[in-house]
Write a structure and sequence with these properties.
The chain folds into two domains: 40 residues; 96 residues, 2-Layer Sandwich (Double Stranded RNA Binding Domain). It is 47% helix and 16% strand. Helix 4 crosses helix 6.
Length: 151
């Protein structure tokens, strides 16, 4: 993969962006900071495609009965829950919670991406949520929540 020094990339950003957009990955390296790792400039569409392979799976942990009055929806990949008096309300609560978690996660990436934190794998799932830009209908579709309500 081609390495491009940061000082050179500053002057050629438009051309480098065009190359990345067609699928070429370019590694940006900072020669002044030997300890820094390179950073990739790559097509967002390719990363989106990679993330789409990460599917969300759910379990209904609780349903109304003698001891419980609510439905509880659990997402296995992120550990996020949604709770509500109906399945629809639980899904809506889940959407609120996954949006909140994605915001918190991406606001403190060094903490959540730490190998010792156990939540590094959440990145690819939460990125899908973030790419929806708060559009609840889009989140509903992207996360496959229509199947959850159909069960």
């Amino acid at each position: 993969m081609p390495y491009v020094p940061v000082h050179e990339a500053k002057n050629k950003l438009t051309a480098l962006r065009r190359e990345a957009a067609i699928g070429k990955e370019l590694l940006l390296a900072d020669a002044k900071r030997k300890d820094d790792q390179p950073v990739s400039l790559i097509s967002t569409a390719l990363i989106d495609e990679l993330c789409e392979a990460k599917t969300f799976s759910y379990d209904w942990l609780d349903e109304p009965g003698e001891e419980n009055r609510n439905y509880s929806l659990y997402n296995r990949e992120t550990g996020v829950y949604g709770v509500g008096a109906t399945r629809k309300e639980a899904v809506e609560d889940y959407i609120d919670n996954i949006i909140d978690y994605a915001g918190v996660y991406f606001d403190d990436l060094p903490f959540y991406l730490s190998p010792s934190g156990g939540r590094r794998d959440h990145y690819w799932y939460l990125r899908r949520v973030l790419r929806c830009e708060g559009d609840r209908e889009k989140i509903y579709q992207v996360l496959g929540l229509d199947k959850v309500l159909a069960d």
